[in-house]
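Is iron/sulfur cluster placement plausible here? Inputs below.
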Amino acid sequence: MKENILIIGGGAAGMEAATQLHKMGLNPIIIEKSEALGGHIAQWDRLFPAFHPAKDVVDKMLDQVKGIDVRLNTEVVDIQRDNNGFHAVLSNNEKIDAQAVILATGFDVFKAERKQEYGYGIYNNVMTSVELEKFFRTGKDDRINHPKRIGFVHCVGARDVKVCNTYCSKVCCTTALKQACEIKEVFPDAEVYTFYMDLRMFGPGYEDLYLKTQKDFDVKCVRGRVCEVSEDMDGKLVIKAEDTLFGKPLKMTLDLLVLMCSMEKNKSIDAIQQKLGVANNSDGFMQNKDMYLGMNDTAQDGVFVAGACTAPKSLPDTIGEARSVATQVYNYLNR
Amino acid sequence: MDFGFCLSPSSHVKMDSVDLTTFNRLKETNPDINTCIACGSCTATCTAGHFTEMSFRRILLMLQRGKEDEAKKMIQRCMLCGKCTLVCPRGINIRKILLDITR
Ligand SMILES: Cc1cc2nc3c(=O)[nH]c(=O)nc-3n(C[C@H](O)[C@H](O)[C@H](O)COP(=O)(O)OP(=O)(O)OC[C@H]3O[C@@H](n4cnc5c(N)ncnc54)[C@H](O)[C@@H]3O)c2cc1C
Ligand code: SF4
Ligand code: SF4
Ligand code: SF4
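Reply from A.M.:
I modeled the complex. Tokens:
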């Protein structure tokens, strides 16, 4: 009999881990709580740094998991462990026995209304990066009516003790510049500003994207954090920030403000995580065993982690981890 | 009688009313003007900057923040030695831009 490996979460991490384990002759089973595989990248239009269609990547991954056991609209409601392995009960009352478990439940997007001073949910023309991706995909959003001036706020829900998230969310700087170029493509006459504290263009081709943003798209990057947003009589947004490079406070009227929301730990898995004995780290994400050599391992033998459930990660990071977790699981089963 | 009270003007840069004509004119012939990453190398190496407030990094910002007069005043300190152009990591032709501003 093939050995079962329970993969909780069918995003990029879960799908890629399943693909690799399947190729190794094992029997991965993906438990996905939503109605489709793909996770967050299925919500994105194009990916940084090269504006590659996200759908292309998702379709390729979907193709690879053909023939693999998948349960959609399903969650794990209980899990026990004994000498024979793991015994899971699913929300459809099905019982599954497995030799190893991979947690690949990814992240949740920071709820922008928690940063009340940015006026999300209060002022009409404030939206999130996730909603802007949707606009790029569908071409529809009531808030976007030929804006003449557009602003992007970095680090919303990140690097901020006030919301208890002191970590950097890693991908939102690159996403902001990518989206700034894209909105400029849609509205070439618009002036586009981004407000950053540090620009973290960490990957291959990302710094080139920054140069392109400045040179080809005429996006203006202002170093300073937007501190407050208000609305004027015409329903336009008035923002305040310090231009810290110039050393003066600055005021500007905008037609649209986009909040680059951070990644937070997806908490829907907390109860199962507790039953498995996997703790969270100080950023609230899942704790892996070791930052360098044990990034896929947890304090519990046989329980593995991959993808954005342990920290904010880009798609290449996530795919890399998903492939390495497959190796770790294989070695564990053949120990 | 003077009681020493007065109204201080706001120190805010009001981006809505900034006149970008000069900056935009420069941009047409010097597209690299947009690519500054504010590293400060030009200012650090500038001989004039060791004795005056001369800073090309700031001049670029002044032009975009409605302080054109101040920028033009600052340029008078420049000796056109070109050291700044040698060090700029973005390869901006600073000396040429300085000349173009005053044209
Ligand atoms: C606005 C934005 C734009 C981005 N753009 C890019 C980009 O251009 N390029 C790039 O490289 N990266 C980008 N990223 C990062 C990228 O989205 C992540 O790296 C990737 O989604 C992580 O994949 P994952 O599988 O770990 O998590 P997720 O994508 O979050 O997938 C997790 C999956 O698990 C499921 N799940 C969650 N909880 C449970 C549960 N309890 N039971 C069962 N299933 C569960 C979810 O439904 C989901 O399908 C972006 C991120 C953001 C926020
Ligand atoms: S990646 Fe950039 S925007 Fe995101 S939290 Fe880090 S510094 Fe802020
Ligand atoms: S050219 Fe002018 S700004 Fe540049 S280093 Fe020489 S004096 Fe300074
Ligand atoms: S050296 Fe170049 S990039 Fe650095 S501040 Fe001066 S002009 Fe900008």
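Short version: The mean pLDDT of chain B is 94.
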